Amino acid sequence: MALIVQKYGGSSVADADAIKRVAERIVAQKKAGYDVVVVVSAMGDTTDELLDLAKQVSPLPPGRELDMLLTAGERISMALVAMAIGNLGYEARSFTGSQAGVITTSLHGNAKIIDVTPGRIRDALAEGAICIVAGFQGVSQDSKDITTLGRGGSDTTAVALAAALNADLCEIYTDVDGVFTADPRIVPSARRIPQISYEEMLEMAASGAKILHLRCVEYARRYNIPLHVRSSFSQKPGTWVVSEVEETEGMEQPIISGVAHDRSEAKITVVGVPDRVGEAAAIFKALADAEINVDMIVQNVSAASTSRTDISFTLPADSGQNALAALKKIQDKVGFESLLYNDRIGKVSLIGAGMRSYPGVTARFFDAVAREGINIEMISTSEIRISIVVAQDDVDAAVAAAHREFQLDADQVEAVVYGGTGR
Ligand code: ADP
Ligand code: ASP
Ligand code: MG
Question: Where substrate is bound, by residue (predicted)?
Fold first, then answer.
């Protein structure tokens, strides 16, 4: 029997009515003859609310306890979805990540899946039950503690289960009709992308388009699992994320597929670094030892008069305080003068496999941004992406300008945001 894995995000299970609607969708698949495994996120903004609560009782909650708390969100939805399905006359059983065999590393808050052993899911399916699995969580192989996979990680749970169960299809249900040329919450004229390659989707996700979790796309590419991203609020066709986009006859592939933005990063400038061999290595070694993921890096040319230079880099704002502490520890050894911290920045990225063969994309992008009077603070590129850092208040205008410049605007508004608060 064909097996389908479906994932429902927070806004799709935000309240009792939403859960009942999702249960009907799940039962419809079962009735159509599929074995069904469902991965659920926490209801609405539950994860953020639990995080707020934790911060009220402790400014720096221990990772182990924070994971224990956050995983409760997904447990609530999995049980409610299973009950709602039961109420429709079908058997559903809920499983925590640990019960579903999601084995991870032990890094709390950002654990990686190292194995999936879904024996209990297979047994339940064989007995005819619909399986509901709590997303975003697993159990550490070493410490046996409960872990979480990072914000948005339920997408990754779904793909990992689809791979382990050899599913025929993995559907990601969310609050928009698929992947659009930009976040429909800030560009209402964004266009739905019918098909996108893993490669471009990876760059979009890595650039902050939170429609899919980055590691979910990496996983899907590695195991060649086609993803179907669509809305749980409509029957519209959605977006297929696949290895090779089918050529539509007579249609050239666009140069730019989409514009992504990210407001979750901060910028640190290490001021007055002595211009000596090994200084940059010492700085980034200290950050690596503190498990900080550095994104963009810019090193200025040193001023001849001082033989000192400034090094700026971006990182997740969540790691800002840890990074500053790690750098202060090596200040005397490295001999830099001071540290500057700015979390009022945003990153805007242009993504498109077509830019490989078209020169001039960078110039057009920068010109469009300049015409809005927006200053570019940092730049980085890959083969199919150009990213800039701007002031956070300029992000929306920069995204809209790039979207317009590369003719991505739809003739008629087709982007609908069905739910969610965008938090
Ligand atoms: P879920 O809770 O279903 O996982 P998320 O909030 O994580 O949903 O992701 C869906 C949201 O992603 C959309 O509501 C939208 O605001 C945002 N988003 C960002 N970039 C894009 C894009 N390029 N296309 C579609 N949605 C996007
Ligand atoms: N509930 C978690 C979050 O809000 C995981 C997810 O929704 O994918 O990040
Ligand atoms: Mg998500």
Answer: 47, 74
